[in-house]
């Protein structure tokens, strides 16, 4: 079966060869991973929430210097400087804007007017309906098995539910790692799959080897969802840090949070009021303690400790359940070729009607 058989509304919309997305993961999806994914024919998405504006601009330029293929930038719609980030995306001619939370109608309009394809990530049907009504071009639907901040409805239930609810292309995320998963998602009516953990575990990802080794050693039972880090359900590897945060009382949690906040402030150049504002924005109307507000603003710092510094003892290792079944570190080129060839094979083995 030829590649043409796996052309979808998504591949046509964005102009990529394969119906695959490498998602924007803080500290992980940098220029090297994104350009490797793009050159392999997937849509690579740069994670910008953990970058300053200047870092974002130079990261975008670095990707452009490494590939002529389309790519995207992921940003937090609730970030104080979301508008400035949108400006960078438009000025630099980035093909796709991806959002960690539903963007406002205005932001969608501004991007679309400039010819940028808008693909928010959502975790519930009503959010998909909302962004579709506001003009989003496609949505990534993340089921509960996905890594990072996540919901509690499984991909197998959420994906077809959203496919039925909207008439824009829907890309499934959460739990995908191979060609069988891609074919299953297409069968649900999706236009492709987005993978985070699977692309983190490639030789093109800059995540330190010691950290990759922890993911490779994990079983599906070693991946947990906790609210102890930032008050929101967050899927990650279960570590001593997670255990200690879950056990800590209010005072100890606040002391730990302030210490981490101080470290992150130095790294990010954010002011304390900005950090508190970003932390409060992540509350989503929930009752969070002050330590959780600070930790919410600090999640990037906790991810950085592992994803950049290799501190498996101190950092948070966001992960999908799928880490429990991943056992190798292919290049992005090998991974994409393998997923596509498995998908073609599986399509050829499905029972035919009659
Ligand atoms: C290490 C890590 C960091 C992540 N950071 C972000 C982020 O900054 N923004 C975002 O929208 N999603 C983030 N996510 C979620 C992924 O983009 C993606 O939706 C998820 O990993 C899909 O599930 P999978 O891991 O089962 O493939 C992150 C996930 C991981 C594993």
Automatic annotation (TrEMBL):
Keywords: Flavoprotein, FMN, Monooxygenase, Oxidoreductase
Listed name of the protein: Nitronate monooxygenase
InterPro entries named in the record: Aldolase_TIM, NMO
The keyword Repressor is annotated on this UniProt entry: no
Organism domain of life: Bacteria
Gene3D superfamilies listed in its UniProt record: Aldolase class I
GO molecular function, one term: nitronate monooxygenase activity
PANTHER family (alphabetical): 2-NITROPROPANE DIOXYGENASE (PTHR32332), 2-NITROPROPANE DIOXYGENASE-LIKE PROTEIN (PTHR32332:SF20)
Native organism taxonomy: Bacteria, Bacillati, Actinomycetota, Actinomycetes, Kitasatosporales
Keyword Transcription assigned: no
């Amino acid at each position: 079966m030829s590649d043409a058989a796996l052309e979808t509304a998504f591949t046509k919309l964005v102009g990529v060869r394969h119906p695959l997305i490498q998602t924007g993961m803080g500290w992980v999806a940098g220029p090297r991973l994104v350009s490797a994914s793009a050159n392999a024919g997937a849509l690579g998405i740069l994670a910008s929430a953990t970058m300053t504006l200047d870092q974002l601009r130079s990261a975008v330029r670095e990707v452009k210097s490494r590939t002529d293929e389309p790519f995207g930038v992921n940003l937090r719609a609730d970030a104080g400087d979301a508008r400035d980030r949108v400006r960078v995306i438009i000025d630099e001619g980035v093909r796709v804007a991806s959002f960690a939370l539903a963007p406002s109608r205005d932001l969608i309009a501004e991007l679309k007017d400039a010819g940028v394809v808008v693909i928010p990530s959502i975790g519930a049907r009503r959010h998909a309906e909302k962004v579709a009504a506001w003009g989003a071009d496609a949505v990534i639907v993340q089921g509960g098995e996905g890594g990072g901040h996540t919901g509690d409805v499984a991909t197998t239930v959420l994906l077809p539910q959203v496919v039925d609810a909207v008439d824009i292309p829907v890309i499934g995320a959460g739990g995908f790692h191979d060609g069988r998963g891609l074919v299953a998602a297409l069968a649900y009516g999706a236009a492709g799959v987005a993978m985070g953990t699977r692309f983190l575990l490639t030789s093109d990802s800059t995540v330190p080897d010691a950290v990759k080794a922890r993911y490779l050693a994990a079983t599906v039972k070693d991946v947990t969802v906790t609210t102890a880090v930032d008050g929101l359900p967050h899927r990650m590897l279960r570590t001593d840090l997670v255990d200690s945060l879950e056990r800590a009382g209010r005072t100890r949690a606040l002391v730990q949070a302030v210490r981490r906040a101080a470290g992150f402030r130095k790294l990010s150049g954010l002011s304390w009021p900005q950090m508190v504002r970003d932390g409060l924005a992540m509350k989503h109307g929930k009752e969070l303690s002050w330590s959780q507000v600070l930790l919410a603003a600090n999640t990037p710092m906790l991810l950085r400790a592992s994803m950049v510094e290799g501190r498996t003892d101190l950092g948070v290792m966001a992960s999908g359940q799928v880490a429990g079944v991943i056992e190798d570190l292919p290049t992005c080129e090998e991974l994409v070729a393998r997923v596509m060839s498995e998908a073609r094979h599986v399509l050829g083995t499905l029972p035919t009607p009659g």
